[in-house]
Amino acid sequence: MYTLLKQSGHARRGEFKTVHGTVQTPAFMNVGTVAAIKGAVSSYDLVDLRTQVELCNTYHLHLRPGDKLIHELGGLHKFMGWERPILTDSGGFQVFSLAGLRKIREEGVTFASHIDGRKIFMGPEESMQIQSNLASTIAMAFDECIKLPAEYSYVKPSCDRTYRWLVRCKAEMARLNALPDRNNPHQMLFGINQGGTYEDLRIEHAKKIAALDLDGYAVGGLAVGEPKEEMYHILSVVDEYLPQDKPRYLMGVGTPGNIIEGVWRGIDLFDCVMPSRNARHGHLFTWEGIRNINNQKYERDTLPIDPQCDCPTCRRHSRAYIRHLFRAGEKLGQRLAVMHNLYFYNTLMEKIRTALEEGTFEAFRAQYVDLLDTRI
After folding, report:
1. Which residues make up the binding site for Zn(2+) (predicted)?
2. What's the mean pLDDT in 51-58?
3. Which residues are annotated binding-site positions?
4. Domain chopping of the chain, boundaries
């Protein structure tokens, strides 16, 4: 259940109650693709890093270790030692990124495993069954992720099919939640708005999926190469057509500046591999901008990565030490860097929530939207 606590323009400060705890929104969901954050960061670390929600990948967990095995072992929460909410994506993005290896039909998609090449079929029902076995807090609907730019003549029938798939997802999720052996019989379902960069398709699709009265709604098919101005425009377009009393989730976004602009346009939830991926290459987010710790100028620098940060890494270690670990190829360098970036993103969301509560978000946006995405 979503409760809107305060609104500033289109920006929303809310609470999202789930069976695994209440999420303070806006929130960033840290990406643990195969039930683990890349960079050797544990579920216990994530609590210290102020993580509220972890996101796991349906496609990857279906292939390895197998969703049926995770079901037998009590579900994802028990499997990975994480008690807070988990969102699982539907596998759609991975399936549709396997260009040349997949065939789309009304029933679903046949594709080849990236691990061993074996043929796999996934449709709305199969995606719901896998996510039910995983027992995540929130399951995402199975949809088609199109590449941009795309012709209107392709996007329209794709949207229509995604809607038909969503209807099937809702029916299958209701059936699964009623089964006696489910590890999470209260699993939620989020629908996904598609339509490329075409306003009329986005609006039509938003209206249709809103009428299904789902637990939440995502905006998908953005941040796939289109200019950020186009993404912001589409968010502004769909804002008034998505239910006010349900959480909104912008999938796969993004930089700190993207997140601030997304909140400005009414988005509540975000996810992206960027903080962990960038950290593993030494690119660290700070309140002064993005710092490349590999630069020689940090060789003798005794300051923390970010003097304004109180993450476990910044409390204990210098820029010189982190740079040394990267230069020496020590995995500890990646771990400490990932911990810093995840903490930065989670505290960014805290500061956004505070600014919304205090009525200062417009000034916060003006101060940080460009700065945080700028390389030092």
Report:
1. 309, 311, 314, 340
2. 96
3. 89-93, 143, 194, 221, 309, 311, 314, 340
4. 2-272, 279-373
Question: Is residue 99 over pLDDT 60?
Answer: no
334/331 Cα distance (integer angstroms): 5
> Which residue of the set 89, 215, 268, 306 is catalytic?
89
Identify whether 200 is a catalytic site residue: no
Is it the case that residue 224 has pLDDT exceeding 90?
no
* The pLDDT of residue 113: 78
Is residue 88 within 8 A of residue 135, CB to CB? The reply is no
Q: Which of 45, 215, 268, 271 is catalytic?
A: 271
Res. 1: pLDDT tops 90: yes
pLDDT class of 75 with cuts at 50, 70, 90: very high
The 3-state secondary structure of the chain reads CEEEEEEECCEEEEEEEECCEEEEECEEEEECCCCCECCCECHHHHHHCCCCEEEEEHHHHHHCCCHHHHHHCCCHHHHHCCCCCEEEECCHHHHHHCCCCEEECCCCEEEECCCCCCEEEECHHHHHHHHHHHCCCEEECCCCCCCCCCCHHHHHHHHHHHHHHHHHHHHHHHHHHCCCCCCCCCCEEEEEECCCCCHHHHHHHHHHHHCCCCCEEEECCCCCCCCHHHHHHHHHHHHCCCCCCCCEEECCECCHHHHHHHHHCCCCEEECCHHHHHHCCCEEEEECEEEECCCHHHCCCCCCCCCCCCCHHHHHCCHHHHHHHHHCCCHHHHHHHHHHHHHHHHHHHHHHHHHHHHCCHHHHHHHHCCHHHCEC
Binding residue ranges for substrate: 89-93, 143, 194, 221
Q: Contact at 8 Å (CB) between 310 and 333?
A: no
Task: Note whether 159 and 205 are within 8 A (CB).
Answer: yes
Task: Please determine, looking at this structure, whether the domain spanning 2-272 carries the CATH number 2.60.120.330.
Answer: no
Q: Is the preceding omega at residue 254 within 30 degrees of 0, hence cis?
A: yes
Chain centre to alpha carbon of residue 53: 9
C-alpha–C-alpha distance, residues 331 and 106, integer Å: 45
Q: Is 45 a catalytic residue?
A: no
**pTM tops 0.90:** yes
Question: Quick one: what percent of the chain has pLDDT higher than 90?
Answer: 87
